[in-house]
Design brief:
With about 280 residues, this protein is of the alpha/beta class. It has one domain: Rossmann fold (3-Layer(aba) Sandwich). Helix content is about 35%, strand content about 15%. The protein has eleven helices and eight strands. Strands 1, 2, 3, 4, 5, 6, 7 and 8 form an eight-stranded mixed beta sheet that branches. Helix 1 crosses helix 2.
């Protein structure tokens, strides 16, 4: 396999969560160290690939619902990851060509591919901020944030499979409160989060793999994931396992035609909520 060229400031000595996620999705923008770590995870949880696809499918459905049914035209996507078609702005702009999206990630390899995220419609706009979710003010104060997003109008905050990489010691709930607090009434929170609820033994082993790789993370039970939505109005069906949130018959997350993944195979709580 041909390795992607590494930016000079890219650490390829240890795996990175964004590049491991690229591997789960069947991408090519990862390194041997990422592939080895991802395969160790897959050895403990073989359906990690299905779960990653279910996460992407949920993002697409939630984006279409917010754009088509709730009039959202702006998104702040944190933990963007390596571009994978369709990216969020492509989904949003297919419904509303004037949609605007600000992407954020802290991986230099994502920065390298940021230009891919800039291919907006003429009516809309996209931008990329190289920043860390653990420093929300660096995102909220970035010039690109204010150039692209109009804070007099609702913004959807997209946190796809990112908050389990923020441990309790890093104040995950305070971070989400800070971000949502900066957005006006009518804004939305779209969140997916890995959980130990269905297969705790496997996910404890996965946690150990990430920790040994130098990546802290904390999968959470449903009640703890629900805390991220405190003070917000959850859309129907409320919190759900990823593939069960407003399922779309065109989604392909089943292992084979006619088969639906089990909750344990997905192990991902998701939800979409509106700020009053």
């Amino acid at each position: 396999m041909t390795q992607p060229p590494a930016p000079r400031d890219l650490d390829t000595s240890r795996p990175h969560s964004a590049r491991m996620y690229d591997y789960y999705l069947g991408g090519k923008d990862h390194f041997e160290v990422d592939r080895e770590a991802a395969e160790r995870v897959a050895a403990e949880f073989p359906t990690i690939f299905i779960g990653a696809q279910a996460n992407r499918s949920f993002m697409q459905r939630a984006t279409r619902v917010l754009a088509g049914q709730h009039g959202i035209r702006q998104w702040l996507d944190i933990g963007t990851g390596i571009p994978t078609n369709p990216n969020l702005h492509q989904v949003a702009q297919a419904v509303a060509p004037e949609a605007r999206v600000v992407y954020t990630d802290n991986d230099p390899l994502v920065l390298k591919y940021a230009q891919t995220l800039m291919h907006s419609t003429r009516e809309g706009r996209t931008a990329y901020i190289h920043a860390d979710i653990n420093e929300p003010d660096s995102i909220l104060n970035a010039p690109e944030f204010h150039e692209v997003l109009d804070l007099t109008k609702p913004v959807a905050l997209s946190l796809m499979a990112i908050m389990h990489f923020v441990t309790d010691s890093q104040d995950p709930y305070g971070i989400v409160d800070r971000l949502m607090g900066a957005l006006p009434s009518g804004s939305a929170l779209v969140l997916s989060h890995g959980t130990t609820d269905f297969d705790p033994e496997a996910w404890e082993k996965i946690t150990e793999i990430y920790h040994r790789s130098g990546t802290p993370l904390q999968f959470r039970p449903k009640a703890d994931v629900a805390r991220f939505f405190t003070g917000l109005d959850l859309l129907e069906p409320g919190m759900a396992v990823g593939h069960r949130w407003r399922p779309d018959p065109v989604d392909d997350t089943a292992e084979a035609p006619g088969e639906e993944p089990t909750d344990a195979e997905i192990s991902l709580w998701v939800g979409v909520a509106i700020k009053p």
